[in-house]
Amino acid sequence: MNIRFDGKRALVTGAGRGIGRGIIKKLAECGAECVAMSKTQENLDSLKNEVPGIRTVMVDLADWTATRHALEKIGKIDLLVNNAAIVIMSPFLETTKEDLDKVFDVNFKAVFNVSQVTVLLPLSYLIHNCLNRHCIFYKVFTTYYINSTQENS
Questions:
Q1: 55: three-class secondary structure by DSSP
Q2: Which residues are CB-neighbours of 108 under 8 A, at least 6 positions away?
Q3: Separation CA 151–CA 136 (nearest Å)
Q4: pTM for this entry
Q5: What does the DSSP 8-state code read for residue 10?
Q6: Burial 125-152, CB ≥16 within 10 A → b, else e
Q7: What is d(CA 34, CA 128) in angstroms, rounded to the nearest whole number?
Q8: What is the pLDDT along the chain (153 residues), one digit of tens a residue?
Q9: Tell me, which fold does domain 9-152 have in CATH?
Q10: How do the domains of the chain map onto residue ranges?
Q11: Which residues contact 126 (CB under 8 A, 6 or more apart)?
């Protein structure tokens, strides 16, 4: 199967390593203009060495305002992959509110923030495709969508 994204700009969060890094490589291979977003400059630098021509943006997605400012500078996005996520591995009885806040800030709030800003970019920049890799966001959105659809029928 030959999938092409020529002329399309793709934004991938959590692109510094792991699945996000692989997604950026594949999208670039398929012709997309790629924007890699990560909170670690070192990871972005090594990715840019592997995939010249990509644009990199360093931002901590847990920082709501900094994320919004970074996204506004990017411009039109045709394909959004909300991939960034964190896991705090601590025993249940030792997990703190701060731990949960960090996880919620990146794994849920950032998905909402990035998606909202991308959709609201000026000049009717619309997202053609959006992939949210986080099942919690998908389930919440799907549940809301299904419930609101049933109420309107």
A1: strand
A2: 134, 136, 137
A3: 23
A4: 0.80
A5: E
A6: eeeeebebbbeebeeeeeeeeeeeeeee
A7: 15
A8: 689 999 999 999 999 999 999 999 999 999 999 999 999 999 999 999 999 999 999 999 999 999 999 999 998 899 999 999 999 999 999 999 999 999 999 999 999 999 998 888 754 444 445 555 554 444 444 444 444 444 444
A9: Rossmann fold (3.40.50)
A10: 9-152
A11: 119
Which two structure tokens, joined as six digits, stand for 132? 């949210």
Residues in the chain: 153
Residue carrying the six token digits 């799907």: 142
Task: In whole angstroms, give the CA distance from residue 19 to residue 84.
Answer: 9
Dihedral pair phi/psi, residue 78, rounded to 5°: -95, -30
Query: Which pair of structure tokens corresponds to residue 50?
Result: 């592997």
